[in-house]
Design brief:
Layout (H helix, E strand, L loop, with lengths): L1 H71 L2 H8 L5 H21 L6 E8 L3 E4 L10 H5 L3 H7 L6 E6 L10 E10 L5 E10 L1 H9 L6 E5 L4 E3 L5 E3 L15 E4 L2 E9 L5 E8 L1 H34 L3 H14 L15 H39 L4 H17 L3 H17 L6 E3 H18 L4 E5 L9 E3 L3 H13 L6 E10 L2 E8 L6 H5 L18 H12 L4 E7 L3 E9 L12
Parallel strand pairs: 13-15
Antiparallel strand pairs: 1-2, 1-5, 3-4, 4-5, 6-11, 7-8, 9-10, 10-11, 12-14, 15-16, 16-18, 17-18
Helix pairs in contact: 1-6, 1-7, 2-3, 8-9, 10-11, 11-12, 12-13
Length: about 600
């Protein structure tokens, strides 16, 4: 009896010590790792949100700058500030035309809803205001020249100036602030004859801040760091500012009011504003303490569990346990057959044995059920993948748009909508169908109509294929990727008008089609590997069928004798050559004569 108690005590002591050492070591490591991981992830998340705010604001400020550039370079605006030898009526007409162009640019600007003032000023008499968010006054012309930003612009020798400061709008008496740009208008004599003034409310910034509630410490300061944009869209300076944050460094940690903070800093591009984000890490440390207490509870629970387990295992060390261990090992080796011997005894060991046998049966049934569940799940997933939006909904909607455009006599929208309807209807059935060359050319006409609008008529398409070849069959979307490649990679990068020429001929029993563009051309090294380039998914293309896919489809359909070839001379031309068996419609499987 004394030996039994001694053995039991040894088992209990060994398990408690072992689990204590392992538990403390593992939990200390886990605690340290979790703290570092949580802090790093929280910092990355804050940084990602700050980057998102920066990207959004950079885009909006760039749109303001683009609005000023477009207005300053419009011929009507330049004519309004440049002409001297004109009557009062001519001057008035030039001013109205310039105002119309400024209104048009303002309407299509993505930040147009935030623009308070859009003004053209030149000489002593020219002062034109667009229809912006705030109404105009005659006094605006004098207010402009009292702005500190105007003094900076005037001393800049024709350079533009931008920054945050007081507004000239009718709300100026209410301490209204704004972000403004002075941009020069160069006249016919190559001198700055006037300027474009664009003024936006600071709600352009605060509206973005409201969308990112996860950054409560986010501020935007001017470049000198002495004032910042408040939540009401005003510039606040002095002791009400960010507390001299401009003197701190990105990532610096500091304490204020018995709380710990981390400072993230990101300057905006070309707007003279800087984003500051004060992250209160005191609450994060409070969460760290909660993690520590949780781990401490886990350690104590592990010690109690170890003591209880040691007591239980020390009672009986008999053969049934060894047999039970052997059975469990077999289960670990994926042998789920039952062993009646381990459940014969009526004591606890027998109950465990019977439970192990029941577990083996349950695992066997569970595996069967899991296999069946997996099969049903895959069937469901396949069904979901096969689900598609009804294309007739898109056709009918686009058709409605086309008729609305016709009713309103907007032939441009009607024509482009009709081309888009034809394109969607042709590609809806996939790209593996065989169609006649005539149908492929019609599809190509619709595609080039859309692309001509997109690229502002920078190219022309000339079809020199004789009508005698129109009834020959080719895979759908064979020529379209080649024409798209010629537009995007050949003509568009050159920056000049280019042409695309289609030609075709019969050569022995093969149909030869060529697509030649007058674009950038392709270097010899790149030309060798052009058929190894994958099509980009999710890009601006009509489909994901690239040059490599076209070549592979032709070879799969017609064998190695078919496929694509290329010829090019950098700076002059690129020619894509399609080679496939000549088979006329209605004679599939038969070569052409």
């Amino acid at each position: 009896m004394r030996e039994s108690h001694h053995l039991r005590n040894k088992i209990i002591l060994a398990m408690v010590l072992y689990l204590t050492v392992i538990g403390i070591a593992v939990n200390i490591f886990l605690y340290t790792y979790l703290l570092a991981s949580v802090s790093a992830k929280a910092e990355r998340l804050d940084r990602m949100n700050l980057e998102a705010v920066k990207t959004r604001l950079d885009r909006d400020f760039a749109a303001i700058f683009s609005l000023a550039v477009l207005c300053a370079n419009d011929p009507s605006v330049i004519r309004a500030v440049s002409r001297r030898d004109r009557s009062y009526q001519e001057s008035l007409m030039d001013s109205l035309e310039a105002q119309d162009k400024m209104n048009a640019y303002l309407r299509v600007s993505q930040v147009g809803s935030y623009v308070d003032k859009l003004i053209l000023s030149g000489g002593e008499n020219l002062f034109v205001q667009a229809q912006s968010r705030q109404g105009g006054e005659i006094a605006d012309q004098d207010r402009l020249r009292t702005l500190p930003l105007y003094a900076e612009y005037s001393s800049g020798d024709g350079r533009w100036a931008a920054g945050a400061g007081p507004s000239i709008s009718i709300l100026a008496g209410r301490n209204w602030d704004s972000y403004a740009i002075f941009f020069p208008v160069w006249g016919y004599n190559n001198r700055a004859e006037g300027f474009i003034y664009v003024e936006t409310g600071l709600d352009l910034v605060t509206d973005v801040f409201r969308e990112y509630a996860l950054l409560p410490g986010l501020k935007a300061t001017v470049a000198d760091g002495e004032s910042f944009i408040s939540a009401t869209g005003k510039l606040v300076s002095g002791s009400n500012g960010p507390g001299g944050l401009h003197a701190l460094a990105d990532g610096m940690r500091f304490r204020r009011d018995k709380r710990s903070f981390r400072l993230d800093i990101l300057p905006l591009e070309n707007s003279r504003l800087i984003l500051y984000n004060e992250v209160d890490i005191t609450e994060l440390r409070q969460d760290d303490r909660d993690v520590f207490y949780t781990i401490l509870v886990v350690i104590l629970s592990s010690l109690l569990a170890a003591a209880g387990l040691g007591l239980t295992l020390s009672f009986i060390l008999t053969r049934p346990i060894q047999r039970l261990i052997s059975r469990i090992k077999k289960i670990g080796e994926n042998d789920f057959s039952c062993d009646p011997e381990i459940g014969k005894s009526r004591d606890e060991i027998g109950q465990i044995g019977r439970a192990v046998n029941e577990m083996s049966d349950s695992i066997t049934r569970l595996l069967v059920e899991m296999e069946e569940s997996f099969r049903r799940q895959k069937t469901t997933e396949i069904a979901l993948l096969q689900t598609r939006i009804n294309p007739h909904f898109l056709y009918n909607t686009l058709d409605s748009i086309q008729w609305m455009a016709k009713i309103q006599k907007n032939t441009g929208i009607a024509d482009i909508t009709r081309s888009l309807i034809n394109l969607l209807r042709n590609i809806a059935g996939g790209s593996d169908d065989l169609i006649t060359l005539e149908e492929e050319l019609r599809l190509l006409d619709d595609y080039t109509a859309v692309m001509s609008i997109r690229f502002m008529g920078i190219f022309s398409l000339e079809n020199r294929i004789g009508q005698s070849l129109y009834q020959y069959l080719i895979p759908k979307l064979t020529l379209q990727p080649l024409v798209e490649n010629a537009i995007i990679h050949g003509i568009a990068p050159s920056g000049v008008f280019g042409s695309i020429v289609l030609e075709g001929r019969l050569e022995d029993s093969f149909l030869i089609l060529t697509v030649e563009d007058s674009g950038m051309g392709i270097g010899e090294e790149k030309l060798k590997n052009i058929l190894d380039t994958e099509a980009k998914k999710g890009g601006a293309s009509l489909n994901t069928i690239g040059v490599k896919n076209v070549d592979q489809r032709l070879k799969l359909l017609y064998g190695e004798g078919a496929g694509l070839g290329f010829k090019s001379e950098p700076g002059k031309y690129t020619k894509a050559i399609v080679r496939l068996p000549a088979r006329a419609a209605g004679k599939e499987g038969e070569d052409a004569p």
